[in-house]
Structure formats: C-alpha cells, structure tokens
Amino acid sequence: MASKVIPWYKKKRVSQVKTDYAYHHTKSSVKQQTERKSSSSVSQVQAQATEAMTEPAYTIPVFRERTAEGTEEYQRVATNVGKGLTVIQEELRRMRIATKVQVDSLAIQREVKDMMAKRVDYLDEIPKMPDFVVALRPHTVWEKTPVKLFCTVQGNPRPIVKWYKGGVPVDPLSIPGKYKIENKYGVHSLIISRCVVSDTAEYSAVATNPHGTATSKATVTVKRASGAGESCHLGLVPHLTEIHPSKLEVTLLDRFSVSFGVEGSSTSLVCSMVVVPDLPNIPPLAQWYRDDKLLKPSKLVEMTVGGGVARLTLPHLAKDDEGLYTLRIFTKDGTAEHSAYLFVSDAAPSTAGAPGAPMSVKAYDINSDYVLVAWKPPNTVNEAAITGYFVDRCEAGSDKWVQCNDAPVKICKYPVHGLSLGHSYHFRVRAVNSAGISRPSRKSEKVTALDAAESERLQVIKIEGKYDIVIKDDDLEGYITIPGEPTDVHASEIFKSYVVLSWKPPSPRGRAPLWYVIEKCIAGTGAWQRINTAVKLHSPRYPVFDLQDGQKYQFRVYSVNMYGSSEASAPSEPIQKVDEDGVPSAPGQVIATRNTKSSVFVQWEAPKHLKNLIGYYIDGRVVGAKEWFPCNHKPFKHTRFVVHGLIPGETYAFRVQAVNLFGLSEESQESSPIAVEPALATPSAPFGITMLSCDGSSITLAWRSPKHCGGSKVNAYYIDKRNADTLVWKEVNLTGVTERICTVDNLTEGTFYEFKVQAANMAGVGVPSAPSAPMKCEAWTMEEPGPAYDLSFSEVRSHSLVILWKAPVYTGASAVTGYFVDMAKKGSSEFVTLNQEAVSHRYLQVTSLEEGETYVFRVRSVNGSGVGKPSQLSEPVCAKALAGTKEIVAGVDEETGDVFLSLEACEICETSKFVWSKNYKPIGDCPRVAVTAKGRTSRLTFSNPDKDDLGRYSVVVTDTDGVSASHTLTEDALNTMLELSYAIRHPIVPLKHGLNYEVLEKGHVRFWLQAVKLSPSVSYRFIVNDKEVTSGEGHKISHDVATGIIQMTVDHFTRANEGTYTVQIHDGKAKTQSSLVLVGDVFKVALKEAEFQRKEHIRKQGPHFSEYLYFTVTEDCTVMLACKMANVKKETTFHWYKEDDEIVPETPPNVMSGACALPIPLFSRKDQGIFKAVLSDDRGKDTSHFDVSGQVFDDIISAIAKIAGASASDLVLQCTPEGIRLQCYMKYYTEEMKTVWKHKESKIASSEKMRIGGTAEMAWMQICDPSDKEKGHYSIEISDGVQTHTRTFDLSGQAYTDAYEEYLRLKAAAFAEKNRGRVVGGLPDVVTIMEEKSLSLTCTVWGEPTPEVTWFKNEQEVASTEHTKVTFDGGKFASLVINKVTPDDSGKYSINVRNKYGGEFVEITVSVYRHGEKIPEPKLGHPKTPAATPAATPAATPVPPKSPAPPSKTPTPTPSKSQTPAPSIKSPTPASTPASTPAPKSPTPAPKSPTPAPKSPTPAPKSPTPTPSRGVKSPTPPRFMKSPTPPRK
Q1: Which of these, 382, 387, 385, 377, lies nearest to 408 by C-alpha position?
Q2: Closest CA to 1347 of 1319, 1308, 1324
Q3: Which of 15, 590, 1479, 1523 is the Cys-Cys partner for 604 at CB 3.0 to 4.6 Å?
Q4: pLDDT-derived band of residue 594, with 50, 70 and 90 as boundaries?
C-alpha cells in the first residue's frame, strides 16, 4: 500500500528539494536605449522599475482587478453558478456561433498559406536522394585552436551522415575529447578540439539514404606559429572578428519551475537553451537575479553557462535564498527571461518547539569599535512567540563565536560595541522563545571596524587635471594638542532595550589618537555621572543599556587625547527610554482565488498602520485541521502572493501577518475556504483524430480528449469538415457531441476530407484541433477488423500499468475474437507483442517495465479472417507513479461491520468523479454494492458479500493526471473480513487474561482480569458464591481504563473465602464474563500462601534476610556462600557459623551494603556441614541455615566441575623415567569431581599399573612400565551433571612407538647423559684465514670412559701428516693443526667424539683466501664478521655462530616449563683472540631446543650439500611429544 500524501508544507523537516511544475513565468523584452536624465529622475525611474520588477510572476489578470465588493459579488456568483446553468449554456451557444463566423473569415484569409504549406508537405513525402544544401568549406586554423566543420543535407527519408578523415572513418571514442559529432535541427557538425599539425587532412561528410549517397569534402590546414619548432607557413596571424555574446540567437527550452528546499540542503535551477551559433569559447551572457537584485558568484552562489545549459546552484540553502529567481539571457533581439519562485523552509530545530532561524543579517553604521546589526524575524506558526534574540560575532578567519548580549534583545536591531579597530567580523542571530533557542542564522557579510570620520578628514586636490594630491585636515589645522569638544549629541536609536548616542567628532581634532568620555544625568538635576569607565571609546556612537524606565536623561561628551580633555559638549535634549513604535496593525481582508491545480492566488489589504513595514508572512491550513503551515519563510513585500505546493482538490484557508523590526502583527481574519483548482478557462484543443470506419458515404471518427479541460468538465465537441481541395470549413454538428466518436454523413465517395474538432466547457468553446490528415471516403471491404481506438492507461506504476481500449467499429467479415497489444519505447519503431495469444477482454496488465522509461502502445484486433489494422499509437506514457499515489485498501467498518474497498486520491478537482469497475467493466447501479465519496476518499461497500463478489476491482478518478488503482479480492481475504465483520456486529469484550488471583505482600489476595480495551462507560460486577460483592470493608474493587484491568482485593483471606468467583462486564453493546473456581486443593494452596505472606510481613518489620543463604561458584572455582539482607542499621550484627562454631572471616561482614558472602577456597569434602548466618539487633533476629551436604554438596561439586571442565586443556603426553603420563590441566581439580579415565572405552581403576591422581591444577593418569597392552585410545570425562567435558588422546601407532622410545631413552638418559662423550668447548662454527697462515683447531673433550676422537674433512677422515697434524693429549685436549694453509684446505671439517654411551659430532667451516683478495662473506647463514689479519701471529679469526639449531620440519609446541634437561649446544665464540687457536667454548651447558636432531651419529657420506649451521649433533637426541605444562586456558 502506498504511503500517505503529505503536502510540501508538512515536509519542511525533510532535507530534500522538490519541484512544483504548476507555476513558471517567462517573458521576453527588447533592449531599448533611453537618454539618461537627471539623477533625481533616474532614481525615480529605478524605483518605479524596481516596484514593477519586484514580482513579475504575479501579473494580475483583468478579471481579478476588482474592488472588494466586486470580488464578493464574483465569489457569490461563482458559488451559485449552477442555478443559472441553462441560461449560460444558451449564451454559450450564441457566442459559439459568433465565434465560429469570425474564425471562418480568418481561416479563408489563411487558406492560401495553408495550401502552400500542404504542397510543401506533399513534396516532402516524395522520395529524394541526399543533397547538400550547405556544403563543407575549407578551414585554415592555428595550432591548439578548435575548428568546426558543418553542413546541411536534405533528403527523404532523412539521410544518415558519417564523417571521414582522409578516407578513414572518424571515431570519437578512439581519442576521447578530441572529436565531437553533433546533429541539431538538420545541421551536422564535426568539432575538432585543440588542433595539432597532424590534423591537417581532407575531411568528408557522406550522407546516405535508401535512394543514394552524396559526399561533401573540405580541407583543414593546421598552421604552427613562428618559433614554435617549425617554420611558419603564414607570415601574418589572421584577424578574427570578435563575436560578442549579445550577438547570439538564444531560445529557452526546458525552464526551471517553482522549487522547494530546506535549510542546509542544496538545489540547482537549470534552464536549457538553443544557441545559434553554438561557439564553445563564447557562451551566452546570462545574468541571475533574486527579487530583481543581480546575483554575483560566491561560495553561496555558483553559476555556469555552457553546453546549452544555464545553471544556478545554491550549495548551502538558507531562508535568505528564498525569493523570485530570474534568468536573463542577452540575445541578438534583446533579452530572453524566465522567472520562478524558490521556497526555503526551516530545518529541524535543535529543540522541539524552538523557533526558526532569523534571516537577512546585515551590519550598518560601521565605526572603529561600533556597528549596528539588523535582521528580519522568522515566521512563528505553531511555535511559541519569540521573546528575544541573541547576537553573536566572530572574527573573520575564525570559527569561534562570541555572544554579544547577555539578555535577549526584543527588537530586530542591536548595537554591538567593543570591536577592535581594523579587525573584520561576521555576525549571526539566534531567536529565543519559551521552548528554546533556534538554529543560528546565516552569517552576515564581512565588515571591518574602521573610523568613518577618518575618510571625511581627507581632501583630494587635482593639479592640471591629472595629478591627485591628498591632504588631511591635520595639515590644515596646524599643531593642535587638546582637541575641541564634540557637537550635536543626540539619540539615533531609542528603544526600551537600549539607547544609541551619536555625535559629531570635534573640530579641530589634532593628530594624537582620540577617544571619548560620556556623562549622563537625570534631566534637570545637573548631577553628571561618567558611564563608559571600563573601556576607551573611539567611535562617535555608544549604546546605553542601563537607563531606568520612565526617567528622562541628558548626555554630554568629552574629547580626550594624550594631551588632555576638551570642554564638555552641549547637553543633549532630554531622552527617555521608550519604544518609538510597535508592531504594525493586522492586515485587512484576505481573498483567495484559483490559480493552478496546485497553487492559489492570495491577496489582501495593507495594514492601516504600516510602522516601517518589512513585509508579510502568509499562513495556510487545510479546512478542518487545527495546525497552520507557513506559505513563505521570508517576509514578502507586496500584498499579493501565489501559494504553491498545495494538494490538488484540497480545501484551504489563509491568513496574513505584517512584519517589522518589532515582530509580527496580529493575524488577519481567515480567507474564505477555497478548493485548489485551476482557474476557469476554455479547454485546449483535442488531438489524435482517427478514422474508425467508412461505408462510402460516411466516415466514423474518434479523437482524444484535450490535455487541459480548463477547470470545468468538457460537455460538448464540435466537428468541422472540408474537402481537401477547398478552403472553406463546414460545420458537421450544430448540437454538441458528448462522446469522443462521431459519424459524419453525406460524404462523396472517392473524395478526400479533412476534419477538425473543438471542445467546449462552461467557459466556452476552445481552440480547434489541428486539421486531420486527409481521409479518403472509400468503403471498407476488408475481411479483417478495423482499428481499436481510445487507448487509455490506468494504474501507472514504476514497473507496470494497465492499458484499456475500445472495440473497433468496423468488425470485418466476422466478429472480433481477441486483441494483440504491441509496445515500443518512445522514439523506437521496434514493437514487441506483449501477449502471445490474443486476449478476449479489452484490457491488459503490462509488467516488467523500466522505471522512468517512456513507452507507446498499439492494439491490433483479431477475427476469423486474421489480424486487422493496428490502432493509432497511444500517447507516450512514462513508467512512474504519481507523487503520493495510494492503493485500494480492503477493510471492515469498525462501527457497522460492512466490508468495503476504499481509495484516498492523491489528486482531485471539483469535476472529478470516482468510477469503479469490476474486471474493468463499470459497475454502475448494482444492488450488491454501494459507492460513496467524501472529499478525496471513495468507498465501495458490499451489501452482502459472498463468492460472487470475488474479482479484480479498479477505480479511476476523472479529470486528474491518471489517479487510479486496483485490488484483487480473493476468497481468503474475503473470509477473513467476514469473520471480522461478524465480530463487529456481534461484539464481545475481548479479554487478554481471564479471571485469576495472586497473593500480595501482606497476605491480601487480588482477583483480577484484563480486557483488550475498555471505554470510560464500562460497567461490571463481582459475584462470589452467587452473591454480588461490592467495594467496602474487607473488599476493594476498582478498574483502570488505560490498561483494561478490573480487580478486587480481599484484605483478610480465610477459609470462609472458598468458592466460585465471577466477573460480569458490560461495555456499550459488548459484554462478557469470566469465572474462577477456588475450592479444594487449589484453595488450600492459596490459603497457605496468604498465611505465609502475612508471617513474612511480620518478620520483615525487623532486620531480615531478603534472600536466604545460597551458593555461587566464581570463575576461579572458589565457592561463595552469600545472602542479602534488608531493614538493617549500623547496630545490626552479623555472624557466620559452621556446626555451631563461629567463623570469623578475614574481611568483616558489612551489613550496610545489603549483602554478605563467605568464601570457601579449594572446596572439598572436608567443607561439608551446616552453615548458619545470624542477623540481629534490638528490633529482632533472623537466621538462615544452609546444609552443605548431600544434594547441595553434589550441586556445588557439579558447579565447580562445570567451570573446571570448560577450562580443561587437551590431554598432554609426558614421558618420565617411570613410564608414560597423560595430564589434563584445568582451573581447579578435586577428587570429588566426577572424573572418569577410560582406555578403549573401558573405565580405568587406579592400580600399581595405572596410577590416577591429581593436584589442584591438573588431573593425571600414569602408565607404569608400559607395554603393547597399554596401546589405544585414552580419554578423561569431567561431568557436571548436565554436560560432560571430554578430552582424548590416541596412544597407538607411531605415537605409542615414539612415546615408548622416549620412555626408554629417558630411562637410560639419567645414566647415559652423565657419561657420554662430548665436546666441552673451544671450536667455532666458521673460520676465515689468509693463505700461508697456520690454522689450529683445538677443543676440550670429556667422557667416561675416555672417548675416541676422529677428525673429518668433507666427510672424509683426516690422517695425521706433516701438513695436517692430529693430536689428542691426556684424553682431554684434541687438536687439528694445518701448517701454511692453501685454498685446497678450504672445506667442512668436523670432529667426532664418542664412547659407549654416545658422543657428539661438531662441524667447522674453513675458508682460505689469497693475499689482497676481499675477505669472503660468511656462509651458512652466519652474520658477517670480517676476518682479522694478524701482523705477527698467523691466526684465523672465527665467526660467531648464529642460532643454536634450525627449525624443525614438524611443528612442536614449545614447553612453558621444561622438565627434561637438554644437552649442550654451542656457546658463542669471542670476537677476537690473541692466538691462532680459536677460543674454547663455555663449559656450561645451554638449554637445548626441543626440536629433534638427526639420529645418525656420523655424517652421511653421500650428502651433496653442507650440513646446517648447527654445530653440535647428538647421536641420541631427546624427543618431546607435547609440552608437559601447556599454557592454562
């Protein structure tokens, strides 16, 4: 269903610009040169011109220029015009005959011209090959300038023109922006922008149609200026004739219309035009005006002209922008103008009910430290009256606003003082009322605080007529020290809020800086008192605010400078603070008349007392509504105004208020109600005359309705005919035809005839239509049917519409059996048939349309002989719904229960009617339905609906822009509405809740029920055991209409209250009752609860527990016993007990907090017992017991298990020398938790083989001395009674093998690790040495028994020779010494140290470089370390190692707590040593990486790549399955 129609004046809070196309103003004026006269006459002419141009849109028609009495008489006659309808129709007939005689006489004079035009038309229909009327001409242009080639070609059909450059087609898309091809009004043009030398070529235009081809060629030569890189072909630059914009011919096309905006949004006014010639570098001269004031480009006003469009953009709308906007284009023949009004409404206020922002803030009387700010007040319609204004100032370039006045000023002027000389300021104003402060106004233009008197002290003297000499008064005064006294002290502004003093500066003044001192006294007393003591006053203006009401004051002023003070000025006249004037009187009579279908013309009498009138505010309201809406938002100066944006067909009343600087006057009297309708006029011309049938002596015609009915219903059509070879028109009918179809008889067969039609309404006969195409009177004999006619549209929406038509008059050889509907986009000739099979009915719903696209349709009739002639094309229809369109609503009347369909039209006029149809056949008078209309709403009511009423219902609102809708009534929807109708006609009081009871705090029992809705006139009664109970002692009966609750409260509920309770309700026509049986066990439960509540009430008179002891478990698994208490005081004591033994917690309980808690950490079975909390003081004692045992104990353990189980980590495998252990970490673990270990789904019991245990942080299960039997799937299950938390581990396959090996390794590791062979330290990773030096690799080894030592080079064992000497001293020191190393000695060296428990394999990389070569870069990923070249001792410089081990390929979690010691890796080598032997490694073992090392104790003999940088390899590396202590969750 569509949304409700909301007029523009209720959308003022929506930041959106809308446009009303109902009003526009266009005029053309010819430039006139007048002789300039005296300045007085010029100003008078300007004033008259301004007055005449202030509102050019509102030209009053002659019939509107009446006196007040004449207007009343007009309205009376218009109201009662129906009474004289017969007389008016006779008069219209007489006028029509006289008018037709005049029209015929004029037609005869134009007949020759018409015939000549027809001959031209006939010539146009003759096929013709293309011919260039205006051929291309050659051009010679300069580089970087544009050139335009154009030609005019004719032919029939219209030729297609293609452009070529040197025989190659010109493609504008190949070089974007280079070429532009246009075709306007038959002129074809090619524009080349910024020509270059390469554009020199022969260009041709080729025109083609089916009858031939024509070509026009021209050469374009592009020249380069001298000195631009090429020789100049032309010696002189050609002289181009200057073309002024005023020499262009401009025709306005699409014009901007009345627009609506909101403060803070933006809008654009756009007017398209045709410019001849269209020169891109010379756009037309366009000027924009607001209320006849020329606008200039600024940040708030953006103007562009070009490309056939003139655009004015207002990026930041304010109410200052409201007004009449005029576009003036200077043309060859004068000016072309267009005007339209822009309305700007208030933005949403910051506070609801706050007034709108003031506007038109300006600064006057600018001085060095003083300025007078003035503004216009906003309109207040439904808001509270404005109580004052705040004025703010801001220095230019800053965003900091400072409030100028502490208290709101009540008039629209305020003197701002205390400004700084030479500084620039902006000002803004905010309005205040009882609801709050408005949004700030738009800031004023920038003003600079300057001494106005300074410029008056300058004199300009001309010497010899061309030299200016500037002389200051200081030069003429001589040397003056003490200034003279000021003169002419008077009050320039007198208001209740303030008085502004003004005076003339002293003369002589002197050159020293000057300031003023002001004194005041009560008139006649002579007691002078200085008033400006705070600041120095530099301006001859000063506002005085603190004068007493009713007192008269005198003022005098002193001039002061650095040399002293002048004498006092003469005292002013007595001044009293009082308003000089007030608001204007109310405007006079307000008269509203028709204007357009969405606007009304309002005029009024000016107030009797204008009092410096600023303008008027016009308000409107819908008749019957209480709220008014503003019609304008900026004071309007004239006494006539056109109110736009109204709902067509709605009835409004208007009022006016006058505005001056004191505010708004009283409202005028309301105007008489007026419906929004177009002003009465004759209808426009019919169109679309088509022939429907011909029998040789008569022709049946049809035509389309006028587009504009003239404000009243078209009641007659008149047809004229003529022979196509003659000039004289003859009337066909003297009596008007009411239908749009007519058969013209007495025709001559074989003759061509033309026809024209005129429409008539109450205002008279309209203009005739254009003559139809010649129609030959020849009998139709074809077997196919004639064309359908009168194509119309209904229910036009964004993606669908319904097309309707009338059956053809000529049916052919047999009856019409169906219709085909074709559709095409506007401008296209490619029609698409919408229905594959002919439809028998005369309507079709068209779907899948593109929103905003325009379409045309045609209909073809079908009979047994075939498909007939297509109908005339329909009018183009745009797939877009009317603004505010609503759909048909199906409902049930709440009062009568009638089932109805209803439509609220978004548009209506006085002559509109609602035409209802079922399946697109008019319903007419039918006893099954009744049609009623009220205002803009029509209702179709079913008398006795049943299945025969199912179908598609549609309604069309006549004399509108296509307001229509449809609704399909289905069986389900009808059944639902019939059920609702029955409920309305047989009403009951619907209940939300039946009769029920509840026990209240003091043991009172409340019986209640709740109805869905109750009216204030509801009546009811309570019946208990067949006796009516009334409100009295022991019973309280009441109801609440708002909530629908009816209740009865029994104060003392006893055994005597057992029985049946009933409530009977009567509410208007509806009634109901509800009962409650309260006997037996149900009554006993209620009685027990009532007695308990009475006892509870007594207990709660002293300190008591509002919540007894209960337990909670915190996130860290601490058990808390908690309780809440009430009605306590400082003297109330609180004690904890367990098994009657008092518990003293670390933190004493604080009873005043209302809650106490006892923490029990590490809860286990030892904490079982009865806990007790005792609360007591002098008013009484209360005790709460809590038995922590049995089910309670199990619940606590379950709560702990819930938190602990959720925090449990995955099972972790930890190998120990004793066996394999599975561990599960959690927040807290106790043996009382329901924890089950399983192996292969079998529960595990703790034994010597399988040990189960745990700590406060984890649960574990250890397999001692594992074997293959212990392989399999293990899991731990932690149950909290509701959920079981399971963690698993699969100890089988490779996992078991690795774990078992790790267990065996760890078992032997304790012994083996102590005694295996190892390199304690001394070897580097990398050695770089110069040729001819000696290299010594020495290390310390250890092992028990003594290990064997073997050296390798490139994986080959090294034998001891003279060049390479291997030694092993004392079973402790192993050395490899190479004498006079050569490049052949470079390679990978290693030492293997081992005994029966194992050993280590250490690698060293040796690089030998020649003398003078660059030291080679370190390899194997080690950091760069330059090798030292010792002067005396030939030693190598070892390179420090990098990381202890490369990362493992298999990801292994890093243990947080290492529980297995790791063997030593490599220790960093010192940076330098004094000897050739590398420094020994640190003897302290470092932690080993958990990454497994290769198992091989010896190097792989076939490895083609060097071993990784890890220097130490263990033959029995440690293995880690998972971290023994993973991070806790």
Answers
A1: 387
A2: 1319
A3: 590
A4: confident
